[in-house]
Each structure stands twice: as C-alpha cells, then as structure tokens.
Amino acid sequence: MKKRIRNESGFTLIEILIVVMIIGLIASLVAPNLLGKFERSKEEISKAQVEMLSSGVQSFVLDAGRCPKDLSELLTSTDPKWRGPYLSKQELPKDAWGRDYQYKCPGEHGPFDLYSLGPNGKLDEKIIKNW
Q1: pLDDT at 62
Q2: CA–CA separation, 16 vs 76, rounded Å?
Q3: Which of 25, 112, 118, 131 could form a disulfide with 126 if both were Cys (CB 3.0 to 4.6 A apart)?
Q4: Where does the sequence pass through the membrane (predicted)?
Q5: For the chain, how many structural domains are there in total?
Q6: Which of 115, 87, 119 lies closest to 103, judged by CA?
Q7: CA distances from 5 to 10, 13, 14 (A)
Q8: What is the domain-level CATH number for residue 86?
Q9: Which domain holds residue 54?
Q10: Average pLDDT, whole number, for the chain?
Q11: With 90 as the cut, is the pLDDT of residue 10 above it?
C-alpha cells in the first residue's frame, strides 16, 4: 500500500487568487499614473522640438532676410545668403505622434506659425504651438 504524504508544500487555489487580486489592484492604481506621464512626456518632447524648429527658422530669417518656403529649407537651400544647416540633425523631426510639423509663413499669430496638431491630430486647443 502506498502512503500519501499529507505535508506537501504548495499554494492553494485561494492563496493564488488572493495574490492575483492584489496584483490587479496595484496595477489598476499604477497604470493610469504611468499612462498620464507618458502622454505628458510626448507633449513636452513636441514643445521642445517646436522651440528648436522655431530657433532654426529665426536663424534662417536673420541670415537670408526672408522666411523659408518650407521647413526643409532649414537643411538645404539654394539661397546665396543661406548659412545653414540650421538643425543639428540632417532630417526634419516628426512630432511625438509621428506627424509632420505644420509651418506657415507669413503666420496668423506672428511672422511665422509653427505647430504640432498634438494628440488629437486636429486644429484645436491641444495643439503645441510657437505663439
């Protein structure tokens, strides 16, 4: 006859369920805070890039005496007064949501308007702008 050992170690189903519930509660408290910070960090990155691009446009205007036709002129131009490139990297950045920055010269809010459509992808109060 085989004897069963009653002192087997292990977790019961109840113990496992309690641990899973505790982990779920902790995750439900932490996840919204992390997602909010992630979205805010995207906005901060886009604000910094708008400022960098605005500085490049202003440098171009000081050198050439006119606004660039589009942002690619910050990297290459046939203008004889051009002293660029005006961006440290040899490519135009996209905003944090993977879209192109919007540029208009002359601008409606200043000499030029430069903005990202933000998280919504629409021209609304959430845009990230240089004015």
Answers
A1: 93
A2: 63
A3: 118
A4: 12-35
A5: 1
A6: 115
A7: 13, 19, 21
A8: 3.30.700.10
A9: 21-129
A10: 87
A11: no
What is d(CA 107, CA 130) in angstroms, rounded to the nearest whole number?
A: 11
Q: Is residue 6 part of a domain?
A: no
Count Cβ atoms within 10 A of the Cβ of residue 61 and give its class: 0-12 exposed, 13-18 middle, 19 or more buried: middle
> Tokens at residue 59, please?
């440098």
Alpha-carbon gap, residue 29 to 13, rounded angstroms = 25
Asked whether residue 91 is domain-assigned, the answer is yes
81's tokens? 């007064």
Longest dimension (CA), the chain: 100
Residue 30 inside a domain? The answer is yes
Q: Which of 9-13, 15-19, 95-99, 103-107 has the lowest mean pLDDT?
A: 9-13
Average pLDDT of the segment spanning 82-110 = 90
Distance CA 117, CA 121 (A): 5
Residue 7 in domain: no
Which secondary structure element, helix H or strand E, spans residue 31, and what is its range? Answer: helix 13-64
